[in-house]
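Review this:
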Amino acid sequence: MILTKDYKNKEIHYADKITTTDGHQIHFEVKGDASDTPVVFLHGGPGARVVPAHYDFFNPKLFFSILFDQRGCGKSKPFCELKNNNIQNLILDMERLREKLGLQKWILFGGSWGSTLALYYAINYPERCLGLVLRGVFLGTRKEIDWFLCGMRKFYPEAHKLLLKGLNFSELEKPTSGEILKRGSELILSNNEEVSQKASNAWAKYEMSCSTIDYKEREMSGSSALSLAKIELHYFLNNCFLKDNEILDNLNNIKNMPIYIIQGRHDTICPPFTAYKLKNALPNSNLIMVDNAGHSAFETGIKKALITALNDLRNQV
């Protein structure tokens, strides 16, 4: 059986929403037979959204796949809402979703911020997890946030220059990560829609342009850029609502859980040393390093490794 193909049928079986007690509506979609292995997809950002290409990872003949837009993202409402938007509430939303679907356990499948959310959910609800497939590990620490805002300029100076220009820094300025966050909060969170959109476009372009091994300026605008920039900034300003090293310090509950870590060797957004740190803390986990790949889940080597890992995990549970 070939396990590395992707699955191009984008038809979903149904879409619905769950309503929280604190003013959010969470949009979700499911595909496949509910009697098959359940897997929940956790998108990145924070502030990204589910797109049709995400279904390519899940064989509809093997998996009951659940994909949802996190608070403030995509089709969830209110759009870009920051109130009550934190990682603690996101995992409560996942529990509401699991209960609504009548599932006892599920596989967690997430990359970048999605890996953060998967790990945080797993250490809080280990009894609800069949296993984890993670990609481009991000642990939500201040050092990782600083790296994203300043460290990446060592590899993508042209992208970083455009970010600073979009946030109205002069060419002579070399702002710290704290100064970038402060300026971002002034512009991206501005009540002036034009100012907010322009700064959000620059923020999103920076992240998108650095996501693959081959550097290319990638534009993102409109609502996609707004939610990515606003919600990501909101989380970064609050240290992702985590104590520093909170995830690494609480892995004992999942030390024997089947976990696959897929990592691009040339991922500059979430560099390999973080994946190695997680692997060292979870010696029973499986780390698959993909050469000639960066951060994006859609790079050929990463995508194949993710599909293979998911199918391997299914055979274990």
Remarks:
- Confidence is low (pLDDT under 50) at residues 1-7.
